[in-house]
Design a protein that fits this description.
GO molecular function, one term: very-long-chain (3R)-3-hydroxyacyl-CoA dehydratase activity
Pathway: Lipid metabolism; fatty acid biosynthesis
Number of helices: 17
GO biological process, one term: fatty acid elongation
Keywords: Endoplasmic reticulum, Fatty acid biosynthesis, Fatty acid metabolism, Lipid biosynthesis, Lipid metabolism, Lyase, Membrane, Transmembrane, Transmembrane helix
Low-confidence stretches: 100-106, 122-128, 200-258, 475-487
Organism: Anopheles christyi
Largest sheet: 2 strands, antiparallel
Helix content: 55-70%
Strand order of the largest sheet: 1-2
Mean pLDDT: 77
């Protein structure tokens, strides 16, 4: 089977260099087709073998040279006398120059040294010039030019945007100054109208306008009417003016009474709050008894109180249902966070880890929870029957100052004590690889919950201070109690 006549770029360049250097075009022109022409290709073959390219015979060289010439002339014909093909420059240098009168004598062959490979002739131009390489070179040059142009355009665009920003800033400044000047002029005009005795009307603000919830808002609209004063009577204008003054003082605070729950819902809420009071009272008694009456017992605090804490703390999940079903007017988001944070401590930390059960923060948390919940649930239960004593209102909005930081400290200590066990055993964690291509670290989850206390606790703490100021700052505990509904 005949071997395919496949030429590499280096072999083709070597062929063209040999034809050019040894002026074989003169031999092609001086001999006729046939045996003598074949001898010329044998000479080219020998020259290529001397230079280290011995893979091509005379027949292959003949066909390759024929194909190169055909491609060159066809390209010139199609492109109006301009050749666009591989090795166009080299072929033009060979085929379009006049043949040299004298054949160039070949360089003497290098002598081979025994034990070393035959020397290979080195070409000064080792770069293979192909259409692809020429296109790549042109593209690289165009890319550099485009990069410089792009950088210039980008700088111009930034300068233009900065000028627009400065212009907009000046326009906004002018508008703001104009508004301030108009406001000052209007204020001075109103004051002048009041001083000269023009008519004043006090109107009621519309019922649908925006108001601040829970705070009485008294809005006065002043309408002035020009009144003529008789000449020479400026000193006694108060008695001579013929106008009527209409003053209506209207309180626009929303005094909408909260919807009274149905008897069934009200009975359920009273029963729920009363049960929570009894449960947390019993829990507080057991906590005190553990450190006094039962002191020295072998049981841990969690063994002593665990079941009660789980029962009544998880029962608080009903408060989320109450808030979302709107049978109580509590904020669903705040209620959810408060309840789930404690449920997380009980079920996700203390119950789940042996280190959480012996945390020094557990008694602190239970103590703060017990006192807080006794006061809170008692307040809710008595508020449903409108029998909240003033002392309970004071405790409701005062004891949190100490109990909130105490409870949060205890909860964080429980988290911290539990994370050592989770880190060691990788409890409730999912690692790769797995079927669902999913990973979860319960240790990182605990740290994330601990970090959430940083932004959320101050907000809840300051919210309670705002409620305290609203309820106790007015001095009317009865009215404050009517505003706060049961959870």
């Amino acid at each position: 089977m005949a071997r395919r006549n496949v030429w590499s770029g280096e072999e083709t360049m070597e062929l063209l260099e040999v034809i050019k250097e040894h002026n074989f075009m003169q031999l092609f022109a001086s001999v006729s087709r046939g045996q003598k022409d074949y001898q010329v290709y044998r000479m080219i073959e020998e020259e290529m073998q001397k230079n280290g390219f011995g893979g091509k015979d005379a027949g292959q060289i003949y066909h390759k040279w024929k194909n190169l010439k055909r491609a060159f002339y066809q390209s010139k014909k199609l492109n109006k006398g301009r050749a666009i093909c591989e090795f166009a420059e080299e072929l033009a240098d060979i085929l379009e120059r006049p043949c040299a009168m004298k054949r160039r004598e070949p360089d003497p062959p290098a002598e081979a040294v025994e034990g070393e490979p035959a020397p290979v002739k080195k070409r000064s131009n080792t770069q293979i010039k192909t259409i692809r390489s020429q296109i790549v070179t042109k593209l690289a040059k165009a890319q550099n030019d485009n990069c410089e142009e792009f950088g210039k355009k980008w700088n111009d665009l930034n300068d233009y945007e900065f000028k627009l920003y400065k212009r907009k800033e000046k326009e906004q400044t002018v508008i703001m100054n104009r508004m301030l000047e108009d406001s000052r002029t209007t204020l001075m005009s109103r004051c002048r109208d009041i001083l000269v005795g023009r008519e004043i009307r006090v109107n009621e603000i519309g019922e649908g306008e925006e108001e601040e919830e829970d705070d009485p808002l008294h809005v006065i609209e002043i309408e002035t009417t020009d009144v003529e004063v008789a000449p020479g009577e400026e000193g006694t204008r108060r008695s001579c003016l013929t106008y009527s003054t209409y003053v209506r003082y209207v309180s626009t605070s929303k005094t909408m009474a909260a919807k009274e729950p149905s008897p069934i819902v009200k009975s359920y809420l009273i029963l729920y709050n009363a049960a929570q009071v009894v449960g947390w009272c019993y829990m507080l008694y057991q906590l005190i008894a553990y450190y006094t009456i039962d002191k020295g017992t072998e049981k841990t605090l969690w063994d002593h109180l665990g079941f009660i804490v789980i029962l009544f703390q998880n029962a608080a999940l009903l408060e989320i249902v109450h808030a979302f079903t709107r049978i109580v007017p509590s904020n669903p988001v705040i209620t959810t966070f408060q309840v789930l944070s404690r449920v997380m401590v009980v079920c996700g930390v203390v119950m789940a880890t042996p280190t959480g059960k012996v945390s020094p923060g557990l008694p602190l948390a239970i103590l703060a929870w017990s006192v807080t919940e006794i006061i809170r649930y008692a307040y809710y239960a008595l508020n449903l029957i409108n029998a909240v004593p003033q002392l309970l209102i004071f405790l409701r909005y005062t004891t949190f100052i100490v109990l909130y930081p105490t409870g949060v400290t205890g909860e964080l200590l429980c988290f911290y004590w539990a994370q050592s066990h989770v880190a060691k055993t990788k409890q409730w964690s999912i690692e790769m690889p797995n079927t669902y291509n999913f990973t979860f670290s319960y240790l990182y989850f605990l740290w994330a919950v601990m970090l959430l206390y940083i932004p959320l606790f101050p907000q809840l703490y300051m919210h309670m201070f705002a409620q305290r100021k609203k309820i106790l700052g007015t001095g009317s505990s009865g009215s404050g109690a009517s505003k706060q509904k049961n959870n």
